[in-house]
Write a structure and sequence with these properties.
With 426 residues, the protein is of the alpha+beta class. It has helices at residues 19-29, 43-47, 105-120, 153-156, 176-191, 204-210, 267-278, 323-329, 377-383, 390-395, 406-414; strands spanning 8-12, 58-63, 66-79, 85-96, 124-128, 141-142, 145-152, 170-174, 225-230, 236-244, 248-249, 252-253, 255-264, 283-291, 307-314, 316-320, 336-343, 351-358, 361-366, 373-376, 399-401.
Length: 426
């Protein structure tokens, strides 16, 4: 039985009238029936749902008049070890309808987007992978991981050595408007921390969604409470957004508290906000939401075992586009020189580069010297923010060590004291 396959056309959107149909394809691809019908939206309403939306950075694959695959990017800033930021391309809303898979649609759209990002001068491309196996073949590597904790509050107790240490500050329960007013400046301090590797910038759109000011039918919004930590100088140094379920059994509280966001620019703010959330009346369970795998939360408890890990997995994936820009931008805790031979099948960022790194700064230039280490470009994506170990990837055969000791030196240079973490999903 023969099957007729019609020609699919990939194009960049140019008419706002295309947006509702494009969004319908996104919802179909993600099996989101609650938002699968967008035909009643005006183009302006549809575009308003999308963070950083630009028609010129939005691709669709069309079978006749129907959109069957989607791909979009928007500008982003990524914090690297040491607190500097890099210009990046954020990749989002990547779908291919099940009827049109295995036809090269994603490969074409990805190639278009990465070539455009390279031409713009972006240092890297970032994405959150819905499925692990997809993006390695495009040069992405998992650069950060995320962990969800569930705390049994009555059994956990608070660590008596840190429970009362507020750093001279205070917690204020506030309204959503107060968070939109004070939160962005606090977040900017947070993402500029030397330990803020993996954090990305936030625009007004994200703050409005976080605080419930921007709502859509079927968006799964939960009504939230908000708390700010102010230091002794009355500066907001931390914020938390959380919700609670009114759950009781036989006049006994079973109330779970879910943390939707907790960011802190100081250690005192972080401790104090967790202490506040763990001390809420009636709260029996605290669900942390996605945190860094080495988050301090378990160690704030008298019994860290009561912070049970309920989810752990890859989060932010990174695709190098400008290796010298990337390696010069981040900090290094030690001094050393490495020659890296990077293979990039797409021809965007490969080559041989000499990294001269020290705590005072780094240079990275093309080199013809013998390579110390060789790897695919995606492995550098996994290593760049300091989470993955060169020695571990070398043991798996994914990195080749040409000079004895080079892998260990690379770990000394690249790995960070705290694990990188991206608090946002996009």
């Amino acid at each position: 039985m023969s099957q007729t396959i019609r020609t699919q056309t990939i194009r960049t959107l140019s008419d706002p009238a295309d947006i509702p149909g494009w969004l319908r394809a996104v919802s179909t691809g993600f099996l989101d029936a609650k938002q699968a019908s967008h035909q009643e939206l005006t183009p302006q309403e549809a575009a308003g749902r999308l963070e950083g939306f630009e028609l010129s950075r939005t691709q669709g694959a069309y079978d006749g008049d129907r959109c069957v695959a989607t791909f979009r990017t928007f500008p982003q800033e990524l914090t690297v070890p040491g607190g500097a930021t890099l210009p990046a391309t954020a990749v989002t809303q990547v779908t291919v309808t099940a009827t049109h898979r295995r036809r090269g649609l994603l490969t074409q759209m990805m190639g278009n987007a990465l070539a455009a990002a390279k031409e713009r001068g972006d240092a890297c491309a970032n994405l959150i992978a819905a499925e692990y196996p997809i993006y390695g073949r495009y040069g992405f590597g998992p650069a950060t991981w995320t962990t969800d904790f569930e705390v049994d509050i009555p059994r956990a107790g608070l660590n008596r050595h840190v429970a009362s240490d507020t750093g001279g500050g205070r917690i204020d329960v506030v309204e959503a408007g107060d968070v939109r007013k004070s939160g962005p400046a606090c977040y900017e301090r947070f993402r500029a921390l030397p330990t803020g590797a993996g954090v990305v910038d936030r625009g007004e759109h994200r703050w409005r969604k976080l605080t419930g000011d921007l709502r859509f039918p079927g968006d799964g919004w939960q009504q939230r409470f908000f708390a700010l930590y102010r230091d002794a100088e009355d500066t907001v140094q931390g914020l938390a957004a959380y919700s609670a379920e009114d759950l009781w059994e036989g006049k006994v509280t079973k109330v779970p508290v879910t943390v939707h966001q907790l960011t802190a620019a100081t250690a005192a703010a972080e401790r104090s906000l967790w202490h506040y959330l763990l001390s809420l009346d009636w709260a029996v369970t605290l669900r942390s939401g996605g945190r860094a795998p080495d988050d301090v939360l378990p160690l704030l408890l008298g019994d860290p075992r009561m912070a049970r890990i309920t989810s752990h997995g890859d989060h932010l994936w990174l695709r190098p586009l400008d290796v010298p820009m990337m390696l010069k931008s981040r900090s290094y805790a030690a001094s050393g020189t490495l020659v890296l031979d990077l293979h990039d099948e797409a021809g965007l960022a490969g080559g041989r580069f000499r990294l001269d790194a020290s705590p005072e700064g780094a240079t990275c230039t093309p080199s013809s010297a013998n390579a110390d280490l060789s790897m695919e470009i995606g492995e550098l994506g996994a290593l760049f923010l300091g989470d993955e170990a060169v020695t571990r990837l070398s043991a798996l055969g994914r990195i080749t060590e040409h000079r004895p000791g080079a892998a260990a030196l690379a770990d000394t240079l690249l790995r960070t004291a705290r694990r990188p973490w991206c608090p946002d999903t996009f």
